[in-house]
Amino acid sequence: MTLTEIYGTLGPACQSETTLTAMFRAGMTGMRLNLSHTSLADSRDLIENYRKAADACGVSPELLIDLQGPELRLSEMAPVAADPGQNLELPLAARILDALEPGDRVLIDDGKIEASVVSVGDRSAALHILRGGVIKSRKSLKIEGKDVAGPALTAHDRANLADARTYGVTAVMEPFVTSPETLRELRAALADADLADVRIFAKIENKQGVRALPALLPEADMIVIARGDLGNDLPLWALPAVQKDIAQACRLAQVPFMVVTQMLASMADAPVPTRAEVSDIFNAVADGAAAVMVTNETAVGHYPAEVIRYLAKTAAEAEKWTAAQASSAADR
Ligand SMILES: Nc1ncnc2c1ncn2[C@@H]1O[C@H](COP(=O)(O)OP(=O)(O)OP(=O)(O)O)[C@@H](O)[C@H]1O
Ligand SMILES: CC(=O)C(=O)O
Questions:
Q1: I want to staple 298 with a disulfide (CB 3.0 to 4.6 A). Which of 8, 101, 156, 184 is the partner?
Q2: Pyruvate kinase barrel domain: from which residue to which, for each copy (predicted)?
Q3: Counting ligands in written order, which one lies closest to the CA of residue 176?
């Protein structure tokens, strides 16, 4: 039994009771439902399977909802294969179009795809693809060098909070937190929805969030080092130091922290992780992470139960190693 909370992300690849049961047996303690892709009401059957699987394994699982909040995303669209050098027109929300200017660089889907903006229209923008890939519905979008303000809670978020008690939600993730007021607003919305016992997980996803950390610590139940979006806002080689700095600040303030994203990315398509991935999980837990979480590895990957097995087993090894280090230091 690990002390570290072990989270998967719910999605099409793990919706059956059989798969979810295998994931709980492998050591999963909770799951995240990403409300940028669905709603609690539309996930009724999935959540029912989740409960049945947990009951079968004798687990009282956490159910974490990840709100839409101020994150920028692509609109609903059919997938498009974008090749480098190609120009294509993408439908975008008014909030994004208002911020875009010709010449801007945009990163799509956690930076997998990169493009420059050719022109901006009323409903869409023309992009020149620099780094290609398949562009899919509702993927994240970052405009380099611009922080576009958005609401802490969208109408969709408020509707989901109203349903949260019914579906047994135990924690709420707020994306792109950059000020303590956002967390206070969420805390008040939770109290209004009779959810005062629900934990708040504050996602640090950009440099502003990192700078605001000292003010966020007293307002959060968990700080989330959300490396997907954070890695879009920094040179990637700067990310490990930022992760270490956030971890240290959390340890000093005694606020739990969670490390997420790409922990077992290669396992979306392979049953065994890389050595680098298991080292990443081990180091996060050895640095004091209270929780670790995978995202698309379980939501859309081919080996969701194996992913949880590697995540939980590696976290357990790191806990053992940390305890052994502490006891040998105490003996000296
Ligand atoms: N409930 C769901 N229903 C359908 N597809 C989903 C669902 N949850 C996730 N997915 C798919 O799995 C992918 C990975 O899930 P994840 O939650 O990591 O999404 P994301 O959009 O990359 O997240 P982030 O909020 O970190 O930007 C999503 O991009 C989406 O295509
Ligand atoms: C999970 C997530 O939101 C991120 O890493 O950006």
A1: 8
A2: 4-307
A3: 2
